[in-house]
Amino acid sequence: MFQVLGSSVAALLHSAIHVSFMSGRLVNRLGLKKDVQADVSMPAPPLAPNGSGSAWLVEGRLGYVEVSLKGTKHVTQLFVARDLPADIILGVDFLRKTQMRLNFPESCVTFVSGGEELKLQFLSSKEVSDHQHEATSAARAYSSNF
Fold first, then answer.
1. What SS3 string covers 51-100?
2. What are the distances in angstroms from CA 29 to CA 9, 25, 87?
3. What is each CA distance from 62 to 6, 67, 75, 113, 132, in whole angstroms?
């Protein structure tokens, strides 16, 4: 389970995007709206032909946020965006920093913490479907005013 500032969150590990995101809904829920910097300039993705940024509307940036996973704490920069499919999307920047490895044969990600290898199981199809339903319902009710 992932936590941001002590609150349990749904996280999507995204190996095809180079930066990480937090949803505007989660920013509001955690009371971080005042900490969002107006900077919406994202580094261009390495493979983007036209230097375009994200598929999501970026509303700002949180300088450094503590993300916890199985007792390990990682500080990372998160862009704030609307209509994300999860509370946070952890991109290649986070995956590289934590040395996460996707393990498809065992349906998990592995990473090392304190010399110990930890595993985190992938969600089941039902869990993903349930979360997508919750996120879609929340997105309909969400209105951003950054």
1. CCCCCCCEEEEEEEEEEEECCEEEEEEEEEECCCCCCEEECHHHHHHCCC
2. 11, 6, 10
3. 16, 12, 11, 25, 24
Tokens of 145: 């005013």
- What's the length of the chain? 146
Residue corresponding to tokens 């199981």: 121
Instruction: Return the structure tokens found at 46.
Output: 């390495």
Single pTM value for the model: 0.78
Per-residue model confidence as pLDDT tens for the chain (146 residues) = 688 988 888 888 998 888 999 999 999 999 999 999 987 777 666 555 445 556 778 889 998 899 988 888 889 999 999 888 889 999 999 999 988 999 999 999 998 887 888 888 887 888 777 766 565 555 544 444 44
